[in-house]
Design a protein that fits this description.
There is one protein chain. The protein has 14 helices and 20 strands. Strands 6-7-18-15-16-17 form a six-stranded mixed sheet, sandwiched between helices. A five-stranded parallel sheet has the order 14-10-11-13-20, with helices on both faces. The protein has a three-stranded antiparallel sheet with strand order 3-2-4. Helix 3 links the parallel strand 10 and strand 11. Helix 2 crosses helix 3, helix 2 runs antiparallel to helix 5 and helix 5 crosses helix 7.
Length: 430
């Protein structure tokens, strides 16, 4: 089924102006508009028809902006929790799991829901796009894109903070079409993004686009597509830990599509998103009632990022304020921003593995910890229909009895690199 032609019919829409237009290629912004806004895919098929499991992630192709099917994908899996639910006092808890859990038919070999982004974004690319894709991340996103691009021979340059290199593990050596550069030790995700922005401006390179890429968001939205089509209705609450909040925006957008579909209920899930203390810039802005992010000292932010266990939750410049961004998603769904400490997350991870039988990533543990706290303080009703988005897990299971390959950087740059030097050195790689 690899590289099979499957073009979904859709248009793009500016969320700010509501104008619709054709997707002429790699559009990340609306054409000719001044005000910052996300664009959204408007699909021709309003009633989703889920394909068979052999399609992997592309079982949800009706609501993915794709031109082809790539090899090796797996979709999120939704199961009704029995033991964890009982342990924390819930009667209707559903777990949407993205990772490696063979007993539940979850086959994401990088262990992260970032595969949902990578398989969707790369399937939006066409064979005629003769450019090198540029992706920045704190680790998991780059691992997912590296694996997908290696398997499908798509040229890729990833930018990751040097301190996060341990996240770039793989089952086997990658194809040479994938190359890695780093921002030096002491840097964070924002520094990697800055480096990637310099490179993406060069001839022959194209930015993946982050939250602005409709394929990234709608790929992540498959978690909600999995949940609602498995349960048969839209959940009441949606729990997820966030770095940028793009996954939560995607969940909201998927919810809106289900409302238009009409077969899964007429409610909006309350987005209950979470951050890892002490790093909580999104919560600070939300609790202050501010659409704008509040000022955050760079050095203090880097220090806080060093302290958190869930390093992937460390985005200092999230798509929060932009039209159609996280502020709008939280406002429209009457959502909230919660927090958990490293200790609370560790306890939650241990409880999840004990009750459900699979290890989960620190970010997913943060979400689980905030769910446990929400039950304790009666923020959620014990009988409410709750979706817990486990955004990564099964890594420990996957690594058992395997000799792993770790990707090494071709170049390491200063935290505030000279643009000319970056471009000259990058040109030597290709």
């Amino acid at each position: 089924m690899a590289n099979q032609f499957l073009k979904t019919k859709y248009k793009l829409q500016s969320i700010k102006s509501e104008k619709e237009f054709e997707d002429t290629g790699w559009l990340l912004d609306p054409v000719g508009e001044e005000h910052p806004t996300l664009i959204r895919a408007i699909y021709e098929k309003k009633h989703i028809k889920v394909k068979s499991d052999e399609y992997g992630l592309y079982k949800f192709a009706d609501w993915l902006p794709i031109n082809r099917i790539l090899d090796g994908s797996s979709s999120p899996v939704t199961i009704k929790s029995e033991e964890l639910a009982k342990e924390i006092g819930l009667s209707n808890l559903w777990i949407t799991f993205s990772g490696y859990w063979p007993e539940k038919n979850a086959g994401m070999k990088t262990g992260s829901f970032k595969e949902t982004e990578a398989y969707s974004v790369c399937a939006r690319m066409t064979n005629e796009m003769d450019k090198i894709l540029v992706v920045a991340s704190a680790g998991n996103t780059s691992r997912a894109f590296a694996q997908v691009c290696s398997d499908n021979k798509i040229p890729l340059l990833i930018c990751v903070p040097e301190d996060n290199l341990k996240a770039l593990w793989f089952e086997k050596k990658l194809d040479d079409c994938v190359k890695l550069v780093c921002s030096k030790s002491g840097s964070d995700y924002f520094d990697a993004i800055h480096l990637s922005n310099i490179i993406a401006e060069m001839d022959g390179f194209i930015p993946e686009g982050g939250a602005k890429n409709v394929a990234r968001r709608d790929g992540m939205g498959t978690t909600v597509l999995s949940a609602a089509t498995t349960i048969g209705q839209i959940p009441e609450y949606y729990f997820q830990a966030i770095g940028s909040g793009t996954g939560a925006i995607a969940a909201w957008e998927a919810n809106l599509r289900f409302l238009e579909d009409g077969r899964f209920g007429n409610n909006k899930m309350k987005l209950m998103v979470s951050q890892n203390l002490p790093f909580k810039p999104i919560q600070d802005a939300w609790k202050a009632g501010s659409r704008a992010m509040l000022p955050l000292d760079d050095d203090l932010a880097r220090q806080q990022v060093e302290e958190i266990d869930a390093k992937v939750l460390s985005n200092r410049k999230p798509p929060y304020s932009i039209a159609g961004g996280l502020f709008d998603a939280l406002t429209d769904t009457d959502g909230d921003v919660l927090t958990a400490t490293n200790k609370e997350a560790k306890i939650a991870a241990e409880l999840f593995e004990k009750t459900e039988g699979i290890d989960i990533h620190p970010a997913a543990a943060v979400a689980t910890a905030t769910l446990i706290n929400s039950v304790k303080n009666k923020t959620v009703d014990k009988d409410a229909l709750i979706m817990l988005n486990i955004t990564g897990g099964g890594e420990k299971r996957f690594k058992q009895n395997r000799d792993l390959f770790y990707l090494k950087p071709k170049l390491v740059f200063d935290i505030n690199p000279d643009e000319k030097e970056v471009k000259e050195k990058i040109n030597t790689l290709f």
